[in-house]
Each structure stands twice: as C-alpha cells, then as structure tokens.
Please model this.
Amino acid sequence: MGKEKDMLEQKPKDELSKYLLNRVRELEKENVQLSNDNQRIKNGYSQRVRWLEDKKRSIENENIRLEREVRRLRSELERLRTMPLVIGTIQDVLENGKIIVKSTTGPNFVVNTSQFIDEKNLVPGARVAMNQQSFAVVDVLPIEKDPSVLAMEIDEKPGVTYDDIGGLEDQIIEIKETVELPLLKPDLFTKVGIDPPKGVLLYGAPGTGKTLLAKAVAHETNSTFIRLIGSELIRKYIGEGARLVRELFKLAHEKAPSIVFIDEADAIGAKRLESSTSGDREVQRTLMQLLAEMDGFSPRGDVRIIAATNRPDILDPAMLRPGRFDRLIEVPMPDIEARLEIFRIHSRNMNVDEDVDFKVLAARADMASGADIKAICTEAGMFAIRDGTGYSPRISRGPSPRSWARWRRGGKKSPG
Model:
C-alpha cells in the first residue's frame, strides 16, 4: 500500500515537471521571437532614421543652393538696375586733380575722378566712363578697336609649307631673307651695320603662287600674321579708310613682331591722278595714310609688310620706293622644270596610274600656271570618279593641259 501511494504521489510531480519544462521552452521561443522582432523593428527604425537624416541634409544643401541663387539673382537685378554710364574723352588734366572731359553728348565738363583709378591712366585722349548724374569719372576704358581690324589677325596658321610650293626656290630664299631673317636673327643686321628690309612686293601673273608664298610665311614664322585685301581699306565715308589703316598698324605694333600681308595691293595703291571723283579722292587719302604708316615719321618697329599684286604697272611710284618695299620679287610663270615639280606636288596624294608621264604633261602644259596645273589634277580626279575607276586616268582622256590652259585664259570653246 505504501509503494502504490508513493507512485501516485510521484506521477503528478512528473507531469508537473514536464509541463513546466514545456512551458519554459515555449517561453524561451517566445522570448527569442520577440527579440528577433524587436531587432527587426529596431533595424527598420534605424534605416528610417538614417534615410530621414540623409533627406534632411539633402534639403539643407538644396536650401543653401537656392539661397545662393537668390542672392546671385538679386545682385544681377541690382546690377541691371544701375544707371548707364556716359562715355567721354579726357581733354586735359588740371593741377588740382580734376580733369576736363568731352562727353559724347557734346559739351565739355570739369569733373572729379574716383580714388580707385590710377592717375597714370588719366592722360589726354583716354576714353573714360562717367556717372550720368555727377559726370564723375568712375573707370578708364580700353582703347577702341575696329572689329574688322581684329578679324584680320590669323589665329590658326595655314597648312601650306614651303614644300608645297614648286618652282619658286629663288623667290623663297628672297622672302626668307627679307621677312623671316630680320625677325629671327636681327643681330646679324646690327653686326653688318644696316637696317633690315621692311617690306616685300610680290608681283606676277595670276595663279603663279604669290598668295601661296604668303601662306607659307604665315605657317613657318612664329610672328603674328595679319592678312587683309586691299579693297577692305576702302570705306564709304571720309576718313574711315585712313582710320582703319591707323588701327591696323597700331594692332601690328601691339602684336609685334608681326607680318602684315596686303593681297591685291593694286586695289588701294593705284597711281594718283589729277582728275578724279570724290570716291577716288577718298581712296587716295587712304593710300596716303598707308604710305605714312609704311615709312613715315614714327618708326615701324618689328612690323614687316608683304604685298601681292598682278598689276605692278598701275601702282603708285611712292609705294614702290625703297623704305616701303625694299624688295620687288617677281613670281614668274613656271618653266618646264617648275611645272614638273608642281605636277608632282599636286598629285602626290592621288592614286595615279603608272602610265602617267609627268614629264610629258609638263612639256605640254607650256601655258599653264601653278593654279592651272592644280585644276588639271583636280579634273583628272573628276574624270576618274566619272569613269568609276580607283585611280586617276591619263590626262589625255580629258582636256589636254595646253588646250585647257588656253581655255582658262579666255577661249570661247571648252577643250575636248
């Protein structure tokens, strides 16, 4: 009886132990799950907080940028609202610090100057900006320059070199001695005791390579190259052409060492005649200003002049005298050796047939200039394109050089 009683008492204890153990396990699982949920929620809130902080920084940066933009726009608005300034020219500087200014409106004024302006810049003839109400000088303006003169300066050098010019070896040597050598080695002329040449006139028939020589000089030299055509100096109103010439040489002096190339010089340098119209007299005024700038009272400095014309017979004798053009270089029509070299230069990049004999072509093209020979090579390429071949055909299949050159010089019938 005692054992059975003990067994009955032991049984509820085991069940209670199992129940408690199971309950403990369940609570542990719930604890683990709650811990995981808590960690997940915490991670989620942490990410949300970081995103909100990033968003806050982004909004603050955007706010700073917009504030800067607002300040910039307000500054720009205030700048646009400021009164315009009046342009004037200084006539004289007085001893008490005031200056006499002639405004663009007409009358002269005795005005004060801003303390921020350097007194060395306040000289007669300087352009200044004045307050519209008090006419006080607030700034010194740069010298006015004609945009057409600034456009004459060549920024990019031409791709033509002396190797691209055929048959003009003597002319190349002369132009190197006259133009390049004084700029590159001026001490040689000082040792000899002579003044370097100042100008070169290239003359000859059209298409012989005068402009090509100037392009090669512009490519080879490191000096500033200023190019203009003679007709560009002719202006409608009195004094405009002379002013353009003055500004042209002023630019050349500022950019020295420099080279001024005047193409078609006969357009501005024709002989002066007694009987002339008002337009002719304006051209003559421009010519006289050009002559004065080329060899006048003021020294020219490191400014060299190259001019080109195909009508030297109509040029004014005053332009041709030494001191203005020290060298008159004739660019002749090419002889047979020069024509052969020109043919080879213009065909070196062409896919030429092996049967083409350039010696025969040079002999047949006795009336062709360098420009004509280039056009003949171009026509040969056009015939090759027309025939659908990949090389340049023989010139005899198209116009012969001699007949083509005669046609270029005024023939009525195109050669076949």
In short: The radius of gyration is 43 Å. Residues 392-403, 411-416 have pLDDT under 50 and may be disordered.
